[in-house]
Amino acid sequence: MDRALQQGDPPIAERPPREREGWLALPLALFFLFFFLAPLGLLAGISLRVTPQLEGLGLVQYAKFAGDAFNWSVLGQTLLLGVKTVAVTACIGVPLGLLFMDAPRRWQPILLFIIVLPLLTSVVVRTFAWIVILGREGLLNNLLTGLGLVAAPVRLLHTELGLVIALAQIEMPLMLLPLISVMSRLDPNLRDASAALGAGRWRTLFRVTLPLSLPGLVAGCLLVFASSVTAFVSQTIIGGGRMVLMPFYLWQQATTLFNWPFAATIGMVLLVSVLAVVTTLNALGRRSRALVHG
Amino acid sequence: MARPAGAGDVSYRVVLGLLSLVALLILVTPVVVVLVTSFTDSRSLRFPPPALSLRWYRSLFDPVQSAQIHAAAWNSLVVAASSTAISVVLGTAAALAIARRRTWWSQALDGLFMSPLVLPTLAFGLAALMFFSTLGLPLSIPLMIVGHVAIVVPFILRTTIASLSQLDRGLLDTSASLGAGPFYTFRRVTLPIIRPGILAGAFIAFMASLDNVSVSLFLAGPETDVLPIRMWSMLESTLDVRTAAVSGVLIFTTALLVVVMDRVVGLTRRIS
Question: In chain B, positions 161-190, which contact chain A (CB-CB < 8 Å)?
Fold first, then answer.
């Protein structure tokens, strides 16, 4: 360092970190400008067109969307599906996360492999599996009738319950990975301290472990929500034709009815509602991090 | 602990144990079920299968019967490989610029580059279709690749930034003070250290592109059919049992890839 100083270079400590490398972000920034932001801008522009032939300019499509109760129910059902999937993945994901933390070290890689398993199988494969499990002659119905729990096969495929169960598996890694990465940084002494002070395990879970894991939980909820509301393949195949959700609605308007302005409007509504939920959750996440760290 | 286990502790163990069991069952059963079903002898998706055979695999590998599936699989591989390669170059460069910087523009760019992860990508797929057809470009494999890059680049960015944050800056200063130029330093110091991060990200990006539906759905046409879209239409219209065989092939190939990648870069450790 002394030698560098003698040669007239600025002292290393005063140099801003890697000043010269800022321009390296430029190629990707340009790529995003042309192939991500520009298309989304065009989407917004087309949603303001009046006719399917892309004439006129105005909020006609939005008025049309808002004026029909059917559209509101489609939007509501889609967002509700996201909430239900988040609830189920959180309810079974947190216990699995706790199990992972308590598991012996040599078991942890195996558990982690099971947790990321859905990420490593194609979305169509996962959906296919649930058809076999939930179908009339599927695994679950055979099990239920075999045990004498139900007389005739129950309808699970093409129901919302079936869809939520399937999505819970499909999205589980997105919940567990952030959760585990936060949980594994928790000081194990805190739990021991809580127990030593006389708190039962439930109390320790709800008063110590869960509040401290909140940042990971929020991040997981965010990813699961965003991913389940756009899960087109699972929604159309497991949900079936009786349930119209935003992704299918958008796809149908764009590719079978060729009503681009209305399809773009559905896209914008979906985009803005998901963005609103994500921003709210993000703000909550920041609050919870502030709570944890100080 | 000397404290006797109370009723609360027992209920804690029972409830959490049961819920974890449900979670594990939900995670593992589908994969097992697909593998078993792919060996079925039957035309239906009855489970357990009445008899076992390789007929669906034979039918899948038959070049005449499954020509469309083969073409779609080839397209998928080309798109996944190319979009991953482009994303590695663009993503690594951007990661070098953004990592550990706390300026307003680096934060803004980070948010922008990561946004495809949390935005409904289906809306982007539609936007891409509208964009390309407004420009008068017919659907083609290069356009599909461009569409996929925006979706998969966040994965590479995330793992590369994570490994850059573990890079000791002192090493770079040492290299510079010993007279190495920035490019030489990158090649001989930075790259070897962040290579596992880039590779792990590239693997996830490759899988994400191979598996992408939201963008491919809009950009796939007769000439640009890709595997997930082909499988989706096979399932949607006829519940074709060959999808089980495709699933089987995909599961085996991925499992093999994961084992290899885990040996090379410690993949499972890096994903979390």
Answer: 169, 172-173, 177, 182
